[in-house]
Inverse folding.
């Protein structure tokens, strides 16, 4: 009897099987979108639910997926956000009512704005919402265990307050686009011009119908984009997965949210 082959579909590179599986998930998402979008007005909501489902399956279990408003200890509040990826290991939302939550900025890893049709106006609206969210997340208050070394004393572990100024990641996902260019290159040119207009920031924009993804390279001014006109969902998913590896989330400083005691 011939010996059965044990090779994966990645051939002689079994280490590629993870990305192959992620590609399968992205392809399945595209098929679900095509099958479940008979009604124009439902596209944004259905795309939102599919993306939530995929992220819940692929992200580490310390993250959860929700919808709601991001708040900060310094009094800032975001707009209603379609998808919030948040830490569910050290922290939890403050309030959950009818599927919408209040998320302290300290627990938020990423946000995603979902649009049925991405137009110039909707892009502006999404950018404004993202910049407000980044302002909310600009001063995140944590309690971090830290080893303290003092002369003549053994090292001791203390819980110290720490402020992190790195805002959450922010993405835009649209079912389709209108007026932002007939090709991927035109789309990137218009997106780059919008980002440079008032130094707005977005980590990535995905257009599902065209299968586009355009991400912004960090710390580059004027804006530099990367991406391609294929594998849009795959690139979005893999970018979010990779980005969570270097974004620190700790136990939030609850005292920062308490009203300060009046001075005597």
């Amino acid at each position: 009897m011939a010996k059965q082959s044990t090779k994966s579909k990645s051939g002689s590179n079994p280490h590629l099987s993870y990305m192959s599986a992620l590609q399968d998930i992205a392809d399945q998402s595209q098929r679900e979108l095509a099958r479940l979008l008979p009604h124009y007005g439902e596209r944004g909501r259905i795309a939102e639910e599919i993306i939530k489902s995929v992220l819940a399956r692929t992200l580490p279990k310390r993250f959860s997926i929700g919808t709601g408003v991001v708040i900060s200890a310094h009094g800032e509040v975001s707009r209603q956000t379609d998808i919030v990826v948040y830490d569910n290991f050290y922290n939890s939302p403050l309030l959950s009512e009818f599927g919408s939550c209040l998320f302290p900025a300290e627990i938020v890893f990423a946000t995603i704005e979902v649009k049925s049709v991405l137009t110039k106006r909707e892009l502006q609206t999404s950018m404004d919402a993202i910049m407000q969210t980044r302002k909310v997340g600009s001063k995140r208050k944590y309690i971090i265990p830290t080893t303290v070394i003092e002369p003549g004393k053994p090292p001791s572990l203390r819980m110290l307050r720490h402020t992190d100024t790195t805002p959450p990641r922010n993405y835009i996902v649209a079912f389709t686009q209108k007026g932002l260019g007939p090709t991927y290159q035109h789309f990137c040119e218009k997106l780059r011009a919008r980002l440079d207009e008032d130094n707005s920031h977005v980590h990535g924009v995905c257009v599902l119908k065209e299968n586009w993804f355009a991400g912004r390279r960090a710390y580059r001014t004027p804006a530099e984009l990367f991406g391609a006109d294929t594998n849009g969902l795959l690139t979005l998913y893999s970018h979010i997965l990779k980005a969570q590896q270097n974004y620190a989330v700790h136990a939030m400083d609850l005292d920062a949210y308490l009203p300060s005691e009046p001075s005597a």
About this structure: The first strand starts at residue 63 and ends at 71. The CA atoms of residues 49 and 71 lie 23 Å apart. Helices lie at 17-36, 43-58, 120-136, 184-197, 232-243. The chain has a mean pLDDT of 85.
